[in-house]
Amino acid sequence: MSSAIDANLISITLFTPKPDHFDTFVDAQLASLPALGSLSGSRGAQFYVAKDGRHALLVSFFPDEQLLRDFQQSDAFLAHRDRLQALLESADSGFYSLAYACDAPPA
């Protein structure tokens, strides 16, 4: 894979909080994401909340997969993940590379 494609590596995580824990989960994420982002080496992140209050989506941008994997094994990230576990039914993640873009992502 070329470095130009690697520069567009994206981690997308779909969170499904347990019933009645959505607001607590969102509050915990919003409180932690700024500090985690400064540690991660990421190129940015966007956190989306579903209007129906059932799901949340975290989109993180990294320069390469190794940096993302290193962050996912960091003590700070593992402690954050452990704190959220009790609030979640599931969290499904995947790595993606940009294949097409029509417009710039929203600010």
What's the total number of strands?
4
Helix count from the secondary structure assignment = 4
Most strands sheet: 4 strands, antiparallel
Number of domains: 1
Rounded mean pLDDT is: 84
* Sheet/helix structural class: alpha+beta
Q: What level of helicity do the residues show?
A: 25-40%
CATH level 1 class label = Alpha Beta
Order of SSEs, N→C? HEHEEHHE
Distance between the termini: 28 Å
Overview of the molecule:
This protein is α+β, with helices and mostly antiparallel strands. The protein has a single domain (20-96), classed as 2-Layer Sandwich (Alpha-Beta Plaits), CATH 3.30.70. 39% of the residues lie in helices and 30% in strands. The chain has helices at 3-6, 22-40, 65-72, 75-85; strands spanning 9-17, 44-49, 56-62, 88-97. A hairpin with a 6-residue loop joins strand 2 and strand 3. The chain starts with a helix and ends in a 10-residue tail after the last strand.
Task: Provide a short characterization of the protein structure.
This protein has 107 residues and is of the alpha+beta class. It has 4 helices and 4 strands; from the N terminus they run αβαββααβ.
Task: Describe the SSE topology.
Blueprint: H1 3-6, E1 9-17, H2 22-40, E2 44-49, E3 56-62, H3 65-72, H4 75-85, E4 88-97
Helix pairs in contact: 2-4
What characteristics describe this protein?
single chain; alpha+beta; Alpha-Beta Plaits; four-stranded antiparallel β-sheet
